[in-house]
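Subject: Interface between my chains keeps coming out wrong

I've been trying for a while to get a sensible model of this assembly. When I model each chain on its own everything looks fine, but I need the whole thing in one frame so I can look at the contacts. Pasting all components below, labels as-is. Any help appreciated, I'm running out of ideas.
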Amino acid sequence: MKKYLLLVLLLNSFLYSAELDGKKVFETYCWGCHHQTAMAFGPPFSSIAAKRTKAEIKAYITSPQSMYKKFGYKRTVMTQFHLTNKELNLISDYILSYKGK
Ligand code: HEC
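Reply #2:
Try treating it as a single job with all components included. I did that and got this:
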């Protein structure tokens, strides 16, 4: 019985760490320049969430070059990423989860 429990626990933590989530995408690609609620090199997710829609956020991540003027920036220094659709959805939802924080 004990062995069985241990196995379940191990399996659980394995599945958990293997699962991709918005926080992981954030930590992998964005953390160097954005923080959740504090100003870093780029604006905090809380202030992005306050003024952008999910579609706008996805568009910006996909192509800062074609979006920065529309967003009111004079230039862009953000890296252009090639994220999968899944990563894009996860990170956009993650950003939007900071709305009002
Ligand atoms: C090299 C630093 C850098 C990295 C890495 C970076 N950003 Fe940015 N980001 C910026 C800066 C600086 C801005 C402000 C405008 C600009 O320069 O494009 C910005 C702007 C944005 C905006 C638009 C802000 C607004 O006004 O609504 C979004 C959305 C965004 N970043 C998301 C992300 C996400 C998601 C990631 C990770 C996948 C990421 N950024 C990675 C530096 C970065």
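Reply #3:
Confirming on my end. The helical segments are 2-18, 22-30, 45-51, 54-62, 64-67, 85-96.
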